[in-house]
Amino acid sequence: MRRAALIGAGTAVALTAAVILVGCGSESGPAPSSDAAAKLTVADPYIPLPATPGGMGAGYLTVRNEGEGEDRLLKVTSPAAGSVTMHRSTTGSMEEVQSLPVPAHGTLDLARGGTHLMIMGWTRQPALGDELELDLTFAKSGTIAVKVPVKPLTYRPGS
């Protein structure tokens, strides 16, 4: 009987220790993910008024990533246009690109003279003050819809 009591007490101690260890292990939370998330916001979007009616337009904006993970801009669409493509300007030429990186704790700048959007096939001619929707689709963050104002051709952000 005494032996049974000792075995019972030993089992109780072992179970209590196991519960304490499991409880302590869960307090630290889940293990950090190796695939950290991006936290994207869009700033300073604008479309300069196209110089010719029915002509191509350009789109500029900054994608900020405050997150730990990187992302990629895969495509841009708009209900106001037949197509929106991403381009990179280099010395003397412009080339279409299929995606653009958004680094962790960094920015993707779509600006004059560099990487930008080309907007074609307007559903109606944009006018100063219009706000057109651009839908930016990212590899990890999904799609972000942005209202983009049409500004004078001479507009520069921050000026």
Automatic annotation (TrEMBL):
This is Copper chaperone PCu(A)C. The lineage of its organism: Bacteria, Bacillati, Actinomycetota, Actinomycetes, Kitasatosporales. It comes from the Bacteria.
